[in-house]
Amino acid sequence: MEQGWADGDGDAFASVFSQDVDFVTVRGEELFGRRAVALGHGQLFAGPYRDTKLTAEISLIRPLADGISLVHVTSSIAPAGITTHAQAVVVQREGAWEIAAFHNMIPKGK
């Protein structure tokens, strides 16, 4: 995800998400499917987030069941000075982990 962002590559950014991901943006928009995430982020990378860097820090991993975990991530976008918080449900499919649901937001006062 970080490398895809740094490269400005929507497809690479979205590659960590499942094909049928439910993704909520920081603006509350709902994106359904990896392709929608790739297209939306491709537009961001071509516009307001061109030449920015995403740094993500995992603060919580809580296993919910075999092959399913809840994950909290805080991300910083430089030099934009934006901090986001995300809650994700990650699932293991065919031996690989992918994000099946993702809700992203900008905390109040950030």
Task: Summarize the structure in short.
InterPro entries: DUF4440, NTF2-like_dom_sf, Steroid_delta5-4_isomerase. The chain is of the alpha+beta class and 110 residues long. Helix content is 21%, strand content 52%.
Notable characteristics:
single chain; 110 residues; alpha+beta; Nuclear Transport Factor 2, Chain: A; 3 helices; 6 strands; 52% strand; DUF4440; DUF4440 domain-containing protein; NTF2-like_dom_sf; Steroid_delta5-4_isomerase
CATH topology: Nuclear Transport Factor 2, Chain: A
Instruction: Tell me the strand order in the biggest sheet.
Output: 2-1-6-5-4-3
Overall CATH class: Alpha Beta
Radius of gyration: 13 Å
Number of helices: 3
Q: In angstroms, what separates the terminal alpha carbons?
A: 22 Å
- The structural class is alpha+beta
Number of domains: 1
Beta strand count: 6
The low-pLDDT segments are none
**How much helix, percentage-wise, in residues?**
10-25%
Domain DUF4440: 2-99
Protein name: DUF4440 domain-containing protein
Pfam families: DUF4440
InterPro entries: DUF4440 (IPR027843), NTF2-like_dom_sf (IPR032710), Steroid_delta5-4_isomerase (IPR011944)
